[in-house]
Design a protein that fits this description.
homotetramer; alpha/beta; Rossmann fold; Dihydrodipicolinate Reductase, domain 2; nine-stranded mixed β-sheet
Chain lengths: ~350, ~350, ~350, ~350
């Protein structure tokens, strides 16, 4: 049984550890966190796991086969690199790294050593995204026109990353999974309304090579939590509302729009049918853990592998660059500013 | 009693005529439309009104005191100008004109002749916007950080205007009413997915002089109708959801966000209270008609006067220019491209 | 063209008159109301109609072919009877009469004279109920297990009828249209919390001969308006939520419920698909008016004819009797108390 | 630290064990379940706990101070009795026992021995019910007119209890906590649509001595999960919707209902304000565990003590008796049929 070390037992680490325990496919062998309080919490839930305040010690330990990294963003790269260099398979929390160069270096290291490198883009493993993925790749939606996401809530402001790196990263990972076309350029505007805090609100537009357009609205300072994505296709359209307890994914026929006379303007409500498919209710993090273990065993490439994680970091970097240019579009291929 | 002539009895004209009849403050004296079918419908609902297929004849008729213009957009300017020149008070459908120059010309003409010129920005007269206006102008929300609107539906594509001129115009009028600060620059991206049709989807960002940011998401090709606006202030935040049958406006305290340890990331749900004020249920179009009649009688400036309508056209023109520049921000003062 | 007389131009009469005008299938020839203010309102909307404060005069007038009665409940019977005796076709507002005997007398009078007698059970003509009717009569839902309706709101208390006669009447008419089986007995509890007012809250249970059970929750003193009906069948289930702007009718597969171990209790969310069919958006009252005119022309029996209206009154009477018996079930056939 | 034994590790036992671990106020010392598979799951989550397939052995063990019983309903009484007789404090899953006599016997046994006896009526400990409780007991709602609950979902059918004992039990416990008045009589109708299964649908009406009326709609065979309660008071009204992610409790002013003319019927939407208070987000089961430990330490009476649990069983028994009498109301005091 694969022996897992959990690096970081703060906000997300406990979820990773629990998913490992519940999957039954691997074992939480060791947990590392600099905080004694965190380790005390860990011991209550995982009494059989070894504990340490020295993350590097755990990474190098021969007792573990793989590391899951859930530490602050600026430590993702050094810890993941050290783990790969120690011969461990790695799952790293999103975003994979703070720069394209570092993300790329992790991909290289994993490939050179034949190790499994996975990024924890959890949403990709949800029943909702898997259902939408099937709809798109089976061409049931037709050509994809747009992806339009609102991902806002009232949250604590993070200190080390802004709202783009914290929230838009989810959509970039989902889009990387759903779109067959490549993103060509990104335009982004961001604003920070509280002093001494990173930007808390941003609007991003991604232009795809196929002509499709994606738009993301991310905000830490919204009155309520909204997680809603509209996807428009030439044949059908989708609403994915992650805040619904059921019917998270609704598929709409374009519908027969009636002929209208000369003055016709808008038809308020459509006439087509709507369909909400049954979704898998398996917890995404458990599916993700199983995928990690399966790829370690088989050598397969994970659904959210390091290369995909690198593409996501490329998009994040381009978006950041665009915000500095007041929204001027930034090309993705080489991160140069679009002419 | 003010005698009104209705120019255009297609999609919107019947609503104007009905509002006049219901207000009791004015009378539908004449209805003009080039279509016989439209006039037949008009005669069923307004049997006492004179009918004509010659709009100019009605505009010049001494039998009417004021004209309400609900014709295609490209005729707004010539018809409104002719009506003013004939000494009639005018309500013109939104957008007021197709160019800033023409809108400006209408303002001048009305001022010179001392006539009431009003633009039919109906939303401004709703109980919801009036309640939000009070919240903002009483400083209950504190400083305004952002206005974020989603205005999408599945509609018939218009032939003469694109989605910005059709839908974003509503938000521009609302913003003109709510914001005390001036818009400095607009950045907009638009896309048209159907051939031979104007753009059907756009995202617009408006930068205000005070630092506030507005964002509009407008789309004719969405699976469902959404009319939702988030307004963030330094003290409170608002959700305005026009699709709700009740509680269209909800006001949220920022709430006490708990202290968190080093790993703290997001708090999913806020802890503050929410309040939904009772709103006036009076029909906006009737309030608007009463405002028109009141201003004709008193010489007062209407809430949505020609000058405000001109500012809205300036924003529309700037947004259009930005879409041609792939989203490059366009300054508003002189409609020159932002450096 | 059928010439219609509108008896009563208070709350509902204007809607009937408008529906007649919009249908184009008949003409509002005359409007009668005892209130001068009501007639003034009528003249603004229907300037071509003759007006009178004497309803009986209108009923007897040779200028009209049919009467639509929208007066207080206790006048339904005498006015409808007088109209039938004057040889007019009749639409009478719900409930058709205050007693089974009087409702029965109207049915007899209409049959004897070969006149069309229709009850204005408007909901039956909505796109939603017509779609549900098709689902049930095509056996797509399988055997009907239950009909469970919540019909509550904060309203003005009526003086002449209680909440059962005001709100439950809608469900009884819908059930009469949907169920093939006959109601066997009704049990009802009611309460009135305000002094000098009829009962404002009631719960009713209807036992059908086939074993199905219907339950109605009606209340004038609720904090919000709810119009939601669950219909359970052996194959599929339906939610009909009339407060939704779209997707008013949702059809759920029973779904494959997974096998469970010995301790299994509840599965929170179902796994089957959901489907929301496109509904006709035609206004119910216009469809109803067309049905009335069609039946006058052809001699056909209307969908909501007097016999159905009589069955609804029988259910109302049984429910009232049960409330007097503290909820003891009352048999429907002969209105005797169930043993 | 209080040492807890968990009796039954099937559906609910794991939640109790987790709450104990998270509260930090007590320790999961031992877990008993007849199923080896269940114990294997228990060992993954609670590796430090002793395990046994012999529940009676655990109950008698000197290693534990208190027992939490989450076994099938028909074993609640014998196991709770054995635990009390062994000198252990007890939390027993709802319903406390299958008969009033047995529930009463448990209360006596606990009182005689000075042990803490608590029933796991979890909902009472939620932030929502605690907020509503404050509203009622501070008289902010005024006199309580009604409590109207819809508690339906598509679930697996239970074998040992029907839907009344499974779902209505929650409302009875909540009502026992909220109402100051005593329930006088209960009328209930139930139906079972699947063969070899207990009743899956029921409607219950509870008449209180003060004149208030409660109604419960419980159903295992509904298309969706609904958890909605309306509470009407003379001053304010409440909606408690447990399926909402936020704003679970909304408080409505009665609102000023406008004067109306003679024909006035209904006002669709109310005019008063709405307020949604911030609710504690602490997990109810953790609060409940803390209450249990606190009462063991201090000798205080728990919020949901055995006497309250007994009252709930009395209501369940009266409801069951009424279903056998076709809905005839059953008095509560002595469980005799109401005359």
């Amino acid at each position: 049984m694969i022996r897992i070390g959990i690096a970081g037992y703060g906000y997300w680490g406990p979820n990773l550890a629990r998913a490992v325990a519940e999957s039954g496919a691997a074992r939480v062998e060791m947990i590392a966190d600099m905080s004694d309080a965190a380790l005390k919490r860990a011991s209550l839930r995982h009494p059989a796991a070894a504990l340490t305040t020295d993350i590097m010690e755990m990474i190098r330990s021969p007792q573990i086969d793989a590391v899951m990294i859930a530490t602050p963003v600026n430590t993702h790269y050094p810890l993941a690199l050290a783990a790969l260099q120690a011969g461990k398979h790695v799952v790293v929390e999103k975003p994979m790294a703070e720069t394209v160069a570092n993300a790329s270096r992790l991909v290289d290291e994993a490939q050179r050593r034949g190790l499994t490198l996975m990024v924890d883009h959890t949403f990709v493993y949800t029943g909702a995204i898997q259902a939408i993925s099937k709809l798109i790749h089976s061409r049931e939606l037709g050509d994809i026109y747009y992806y339009d996401s609102t991902r806002v809530n009232l949250g604590l402001f993070q200190r080390d990353v802004n709202v783009i790196w914290d929230l838009a990263v989810h959509d970039f990972a989902i889009m990387d999974h759903l779109f067959e076309s490549k993103p060509a350029a990104i335009s982004a505007s961001a604003a920070g309304f509280l002093s001494n805090s990173p930007e808390n609100m941003a609007h991003l537009t991604v232009h795809y090579e196929c002509g499709a357009m994606a738009h993301l609205n991310v905000n830490w300072l919204a009155p309520v939590k909204i997680r809603q994505t509209l996807i428009g296709g030439s044949k059908k359209m989708v609403i994915y509302d992650d805040m619904q307890a059921s019917e998270k994914v609704k598929i709409y026929d374009r519908g027969a729009v009636k002929g209208q006379d000369d003055y016709a303007h808008l038809v308020s409500y459509r006439l087509g049918d709507m369909h909400a498919p049954a979704l898998s209710t398996k917890e995404a993090l458990v599916s993700e853990t199983e995928e990690f273990v399966r790829c370690i065993d088989t050598g397969d490439t994970p659904i959210t592998d390091g290369v995909g994680g690198l593409r996501v970091v490329e998009m994040l970097a381009a978006a950041s660059r665009s915000t500095e240019l007041r929204g001027h579009p930034v090309d993705l291929v080489s991160l140069k500013v679009a002419s």
